[in-house]
Design goal:
Keywords: Acetylation, ATP-binding, Calcium, Calcium transport, Calmodulin-binding, Ion transport, Magnesium, Membrane, Metal-binding, Nucleotide-binding, Translocase, Transmembrane, Transmembrane helix, Transport
Subcellular location: Membrane
InterPro entries: ATPase_P-typ_cation-transptr_C, ATPase_P-typ_cation-transptr_N, ATPase_P-typ_cyto_dom_N, ATPase_P-typ_P_site, ATPase_P-typ_TM_dom_sf, ATPase_P-typ_transduc_dom_A_sf, ATPase_P-type_domA, HAD-like_sf
Oligomer: single chain
Radius of gyration: 39 Å
Largest sheet: 9 strands, mixed
Number of helices: 41
EC number: 7.2.2.10
Pfam families: Cation_ATPase, Cation_ATPase_C, Cation_ATPase_N, E1-E2_ATPase
Helix content: 40-55%
Number of strands: 28
Length: about 1050
């Protein structure tokens, strides 16, 4: 068959054609033999071949993969007609590569893309604009979707080559699928933001005045100490606060990048591959299913029942129908609302409408969570009390000063009327105002928001390692209050690794090793499985195991029919035309397809879905011999028993039904007969398969832990009631008696339709007792969430489908699945469970409680300092006319409790004890009676000790006033250090349990003590302190250490759970007083 004119052969082309095309084994042997026979002649022709290689490659490469065989036959006439040696080589290449299409299945991957010189000629800006503006007329001028596909050098059947060279070339030509984001806020921004705080500004003004008066009075060498000290202390507070906020901004930016890096399915080298959305290039062929986000602008290639939600782009809530002729335009950022299909990527990144919009939007990282809002109110209330105390202190000190009741360090009156210099008066007033403002600074618990930020940031980081990605900060804290978790079954409680373990045809079970069914039934199964699926089968050239993609259910069924029943997917698809597809629907729980056989033009309807729903549409069934038998009452009852038996064994039951119809019997859903409709009754039951999806290891333990934590677990699934009950029992959600019956006190098992048909009052009455809801629709899940919230529950919901979005949004905490979850579900959720495992849901619950508990610990610690500092300063100011703690010392205390204390207490890890408490729920107070008991005991002790030192310290320790003030300052700081240990646990008496695992806490305590030693011993002028001897240090430590036994004893005092301030009796008394 080789031309007689041929004198030379294109060996390179020949080898490429042989090795990159799929031949039958016989064809491969013939061609390899051909190579062997002519190897010598080919080698002799190589030197001349090298000369002409470039020109020949140019001609070959102009042929796209999609038209590779026909393209060779339509080569330029000048080359076909010329008698030079090149023509001979082309003829040989043609003859070797161009057998008839129906001789064998083929695919070529070497000559499918036009060279970059042709890609350079594409008006990419015009193409991008055409898609954005949905200009159908302009698209038709380019030859429609097929013309653009050819221009971009893409074969829609095989996709782009998977090598990095081609992908990188396209990325350089057309850009990457990323967009520049607004620059993140730098550290300097947060420094300026901190300087806007009113108290900080007042302190800065006071520091400036103190600095000016000090230098004027004592000179530069001595006069800068007081004002300079305040400046340094204020700057330390600003820098620490700014660094914390800056760190949070960086963390938020990282989280944003992770959450936007979604995986998409594309087609390269004839294989479906999952890649990052950022790696898509122009010319890629992408797969789209319900719930997917469209990753780039493009054109619709093919698919069925395809509708998109463009509300994020256009604001229009109505779904847009997409097809390859009337509206093939797909915009990035839109969501697939229904159907499935393939797209050709035409624009990426900044060339898309979504990229232009997103590049101008900066995500706000400082969104206030509900707990932060509550803490803001608490901070405001405490701040008002501190402001009142500071004002009284200011008033008292000013009155005492101007009435001559204050003395300087030499015992002389500070104010003696007109004899006092104006500078001295101003200096004294500034000092008094500075002391009052410092009291405000100490009183305002600025550390509370910082503690929330730190604990949320820390928990988010740890939760990411525990397979949970937090999308909304508020979810961390809200999860700690959860009282109910509504969970899916498939993939969450189970592994989502399905295998077909049972196969029934009619009333007969078919063994795995002997599939005794007739060719007719087998062929119908091929149709019902291979053509009614969103999955795909790829047979590698090496002949290894088939690579199957799709949902776990689709993969399991396809694997079974390919391996066990011997289905050839490529042959099957080439033998039938698909006329219409009904995609899987959560309400109908089935999918269908209308097909025409090419050989005889016979038309077939196939349905696949939930077994009992498919059986309900059937009037007869096939037996193993291929005979159709009537599905009478007895037969229907037996088949229903078969389904119940499989379901009771935790199997998911999928049934297949078939009907052959004439062309006249095709139904339409509209008068214009443009939208076909599948026959839905009078079908013939093909068979039933049972899929086993084993429970996840450790899920039973996780359910037990949640139950012991007082959290109800409700399983909501689309499976039938028997499968649902079996899985729920296996996971520990339900308990059964020795007869296998669910015990009455352990909850109710119902179907979605039953729950839906309850009256509102019945639903509200029964919802608490429901443990399992089977055959539920997304609306049923939403209805249950709404009922639970009305009853005051804090509800967490897991979901993975597009239709779960309303329930995920309605819930207090929406938990989407990272593996099986659609992009719509993920965007509607607060937390993404990366491994789809219920154990991770329980871990999120632990971390949520830990966040709430850590914040309560810090509130207790900080309020102790606030109460003690306010009372001590107020009493000392009123009675003695001076404040025992200077501005710098109070700022240092503020730094200890606000920053270091928050860091120490906010990074405690969750403990098992947290999961043994009842959930706090929606209305529990932030400050509990236990917290009031602990903080008041410690505050009263500190007040008593420090006031004793204030009024009797000099005589008790036989020291001067300066040393006594240092003793007061040192004791006060050390009391806070020791009280940090007490705050580690609000109820446990052993506050040291597990402390060796929190190295950060130990490190912070050590740093605090070290800095305190430096403040006292080495920064005399800066901190206004005096050096202390060993004995005095021991006394300070001993007084502070008494905090431990006091905290231990206090925890024996029982307090009621009902809050003091919110008890009914207290409210009644308060009302009567008013």
């Amino acid at each position: 068959m080789v031309s007689s004119k041929t004198s030379r052969y294109d060996c390179g082309q020949l080898i490429v054609d042989i090795t990159t095309s799929t031949f039958t084994r016989a064809k491969k042997r013939w061609r390899m033999a051909y190579v062997a026979l002519y190897a010598v002649r080919v080698m002799l022709s190589l030197p001349k071949e090298l000369v002409n290689k470039r020109s020949i490659y140019k001609d070959y490469s102009e042929i796209s993969e999609h038209d590779s065989f026909g393209g060779f036959q339509r080569l330029k006439g000048s080359q076909r007609e010329s008698g030079d040696s090149n023509s001979g080589r082309l003829d040989l290449a043609l003859e070797v590569q161009a057998p008839k299409h129906d001789d064998y299945s083929y695919s070529s991957t070497a000559l499918d893309v036009k060279p970059s010189s042709d890609l350079n000629k594409i008006d990419h800006e015009g193409l991008a604009k055409l898609v954005k503006e949905k200009d159908l007329a302009a698209l038709e001028k380019l030859g429609g979707v097929a013309g653009v596909t050819t221009s971009l050098g893409t074969n829609p059947d095989n996709g782009l080559p998977g090598d990095n060279v081609e992908v990188n070339k396209r990325r350089q030509l057309f850009g990457s699928n990323t967009y520049p984001k607004p620059p993140t806020k730098g550290l300097f921004y947060f420094v300026l933001d901190a300087l806007k705080d009113m108290t900080i500004l007042i302190l800065c003004v006071c520091a400036a005045l103190a600095l000016a008066f000090g230098i004027k009075e004592y000179g530069v060498e001595e006069g800068w100490y007081e004002g300079g000290s305040i400046f340094v202390a204020v700057m330390i507070v600003i820098i620490v606060s700014s660094l914390s906020n800056f760190r949070q901004e960086i963390q938020f930016d990282k989280l944003s990048k992770i959450s936007s890096n979604i995986n998409v399915e594309i087609f390269r080298d004839r294989q479906r591959q999952e890649i990052s959305i950022f790696d898509i290039v122009v010319g890629d062929v992408g797969f789209l299913n319900i719930g997917d986000q469209i990753p780039a602008d493009g054109l619709f290639l093919d698919g069925y029942s395809f509708q998109v939600d463009e509300s994020s782009m256009t604001g229009e809530s109505d779904y847009v129908e997409v097809d390859s002729t009337k509206n093939p335009f797909l915009l990035s950022g839109a969501k697939v609302a229904d159907g499935y299909g393939r797209m050709l990527v035409t624009s990426v990144g900044m060339n898309t409408a979504w990229g232009e919009m997103m590049s101008s939007i900066s995500q706000e990282s400082n969104v206030r969570t509900p707990l932060q809002a509550r803490l803001d109110k608490l901070t405001s209330s405490i701040g008002k009390v501190g402001l009142a105390v500071a004002f009284l202190v200011l008033l008292v000190l000013l009155i005492r000063y101007f009435t001559g009741n204050t003395t300087d360090k030499y015992g002389n009156k500070e104010y003696i009327g007109s004899k006092t210099k104006t500078d001295d008066v101003l200096n004294a007033v500034v000092r008094i105002v500075s002391a009052a403002v410092t009291i405000v600074v100490v009183a305002i618990p600025e550390g509370l928001p910082l503690a929330v930020t730190l604990t949320l940031a820390y928990s988010m980081k740890r939760m990411m390692k525990d397979q949970a990605m937090v999308r909304k900060l508020s979810a961390c804290e809200t999860m700690g209050s959860a009282t109910v978790i509504c969970t899916d079954k498939t993939g969450t409680l189970t592994l989502n690794q399905m295998t077909v373990t049972k196969f029934w045809v009619g009333q007969e079970s078919i063994a795995e090793d002997s599939p005794s069914i007739t060719p007719k039934v087998r062929e119908l199964f091929y149709q019902g499985v291979g053509l009614n699926t969103t999955g795909s089968v790829f047979i590698p050239l090496s002949g290894s195991k088939p690579e199957i993609s799709g949902s776990p259910t689709e993969k399991a069924i396809l694997h079974w029919v390919v391996i066990e029943l011997g289905m050839d997917m490529e042959k099957l698809k080439s033998s039938y035309d698909i006329l219409h597809v009904e995609t899987f629907n959560s309400d109908k729980k089935r999918s269908g397809v209308l097909i025409k056989k090419k050989d005889d033009n016979s038309i077939h309807v196939h349905w696949k879905g939930a077994a009992e729903m498919i059986v309900a549409t059937c009037s007869s069934y096939y037996d193993t011999n291929g005979a159709a038998n009537p599905l009478d009452v007895d037969a229907r009852s037996k088949i229903e028993q078969i389904i119940e038996g499989m379901a009771a064994s935790s199997l998911r039951c999928i049934a297949f039904a078939h009907a052959q119809i004439s062309e006249e019997e095709i139904e339409y859903s509209d008068d214009d007969k443009t939208h076909q409709k599948l026959k839905e009754d009078g079908l013939i039951l093909l068979g039933i398969v049972g899929l086993k999806d084993p429970c996840r290891q450790g899920v039973r333990n996780a359910v037990t832990v949640c139950k012991s934590a007082g959290v109800d677990i409700k399983m909501i699934t689309g499976d039938n009631i028997f499968t649902a009950k079996a899985i729920a029992t296996e996971c520990g959600i339900l308990k059964t008696d020795h007869n296998g019956q669910v015990t009455e006190h352990d909850g109710q098992v119902i179907e979605g339709a039953e729950f839906r048909n309850y009256t509102d009052d019945e639903r509200m009455e029964k919802v608490d007792n429901i443990r399992v809801m089977a055959r539920s629709s997304p609306f049923d899940k939403l209805l249950m969430v709404q009922c639970l919230k009305k009853k005051g529950h804090v509800v967490a919901v897991t979901g993975d489908g597009t239709n779960d979005a309303p329930a995920l949004k309605e819930a207090d905490i929406g938990l989407s699945m990272g593996i099986q979850g659609t992009e719509v579900a993920k965007e509607s959720s607060d937390i993404i469970i990366l491994d789809d495992n219920f154990h991770s849901v329980a871990t999120v619950l632990r971390w949520g409680r830990c966040v709430y508990n850590n914040i309560q610990k810090f509130i207790q610690f900080q309020l102790t300092v606030n109460v003690a500092a306010l009372v001590i300063n107020f009493i000392a100011a009123v009675s003695a006319g001076e404040v025992p703690l200077t501005a710098v010392q109070l700022l240092w205390v503020n730094l200890i409790m606000d920053t270091l204390g928050a860091l120490a207490l906010a990074t405690e890890r969750p403990t098992d004890e947290l999961m043994q408490r009842r959930p706090v729920g929606r209305t529990a107070p932030l400050i509990t009676n236990i917290m009031w008991r602990n903080l008041l005991a410690q505050a009263l002790y500190q007040i008593a000790v420090l006031l004793t030192l204030q009024f009797r310290g000099e005589s008790i320790f036989n020291v001067n006033a300066a040393v006594n003030d240092t003793l007061i300052f040192n004791t006060f700081v050390l009391c806070q250090v020791f009280n940090e240990f007490n705050s580690r646990s609000m109820e446990k008496k052993n506050v040291f349990k597990g402390i060796h695992r929190n190295r950060l806490f130990i490190g912070i305590v050590g740093i605090t003590i070290l800095l305190q030693v430096v403040m006292v011993e080495f920064l005399k002028k800066f901190a206004d302190t005096e050096k202390l001897n060993v004995q005095q240090w021991v006394v300070c430590i001993a007084i502070a250490a008494l905090s431990w036994p006091i905290g231990w004893v206090v925890k024996f005092i029982h307090v009621p759970e009902e809050p003091y301030l919110l008890s009914k009796r207290a409210l009644v008394r308060f009302k009567n007083i008013l």
